[in-house]
Amino acid sequence: MFLKKLIKAKKDRAKHSLSIIIPITLLNSGILIIFLLISSYLIYSTACFLVARLPTVQEEKQMIFNDQLALFLFILLPSTILTGIVLHYWVTKKMFKPFHELIEHTQALKEGRFPPEIRARSYREINQLTHTFNDLTERLKYNEKSRDQMLTNMAHDLRTPLSNINGYLEAMKDGVIKGDKDIFSSLHKESDRLIHMINQLQEMSKWNEITSHTLLEKYNLEIQSVLHESLSLFELTLKNKKISLLTEIDPCTVSINKEGIQQALTNLMQNAIQYYEGTSPISVKGEKCGGYYQISITNPGLPLTEKDQVSLFERFYRVDTARNQKTGGTGLGLAIVKEIVVTQHKGEVFIESTNNHHTFFLHLPLNH
Ligand SMILES: Nc1ncnc2c1ncn2[C@@H]1O[C@H](COP(=O)(O)OP(=O)(O)OP(=O)(O)O)[C@@H](O)[C@H]1O
Ligand SMILES: [Mg+2]
Questions:
Q1: Which pairs from 291-294 meet CB under 8 Å and 24+ separation?
Q2: Which residue, judged by its Cα, is nearest atom 3 of ligand 1?
Q3: Per-block mean pLDDT, blocks of 10 residues, the chain (368 long)
Q4: Which stretches are transmembrane (predicted)?
């Protein structure tokens, strides 16, 4: 109750407080008036003094001159002051117009609406401010859209394995089916999918958290051993799936965050295996190319459209194929790779794709 009253009082005070234009106009008008009064007095006394010293001017004419000049200044002074005040108020109001627009737009944002873009102004500082505000609005809009998209995708992706588990459990509870090895292994697979999704989400929020606050610590490391260490984790899976792996990794010292690069390589290798379609081997190459070290991973796979290739690195983007719907996934793997390589290592990630071979490239800048 007390808090509500306090907020209301604050709001009322804000509503009834003076616009900044009024004190600025009053201050400048005061300075203008003082300045004009002093200069008028100086003009009057100097002119009268000079006229009095002229030998040809009689006293009577001198009096007339003095009166005329006083009358002239008496009329001129208030009209100049008035014009000055009006002009000042008008110019200041015009200058402050973008701020009023900004206030209205910020208010709209606070209420959850997205205001239209504020148009550019001719003053540099105001221009920078409106530009930054427009960017901020765009960013918020994008974040809200991705959040909605994420919730929709998550709900969809979580529902499928959960309904499967639920369906089986219900049927077993009602005695419609009896649990056997196949059913348990199917349930186990579904729960694995759920765990994977949750792990990916955790991973994404971990990297998001890190990238929004700090830069990861990097050390000069021999990249060849870092990459081989990550690849060794896939030996068993590759053997089970009868996929051969070709590696051609040149040694080079690169300034990297080891955990980050290994996570990126793991995500790319998981994809290469998960979306493997064909008979040729998966190949991993590492070589120095000018100012950067290039890592590339190639696998045979189903064709990817132009749109897919552009959007793959966006969060929650998944290629819409029947097979993908079955395998499940969060569409976060490549977004995590991008976050690590681009944001943290100031590198590049991109894909080159022929009809049925896809190569994912990582460029890590060499600092020497
Ligand atoms: N090596 C690849 N070959 C063919 N398609 C790929 C490859 N890597 C990624 N894709 C496509 O890009 C999409 C996005 O991949 P990404 O790794 O970001 O998400 P995901 O694999 O669907 O889910 P997860 O978050 O579990 O990794 C995938 O759905 C897949 O269709
Ligand atoms: Mg993936």
A1: 291/365, 291/366, 292/347, 292/348, 292/363, 292/364, 292/365, 292/366, 293/223, 293/252, 293/254, 293/363, 293/364, 293/366, 294/361, 294/362, 294/363, 294/364
A2: 275
A3: 60 62 86 91 91 82 88 90 90 85 89 85 82 89 78 77 89 89 88 84 74 74 96 95 97 93 94 94 96 97 92 84 67 89 92 94 88
A4: 20-44, 69-91
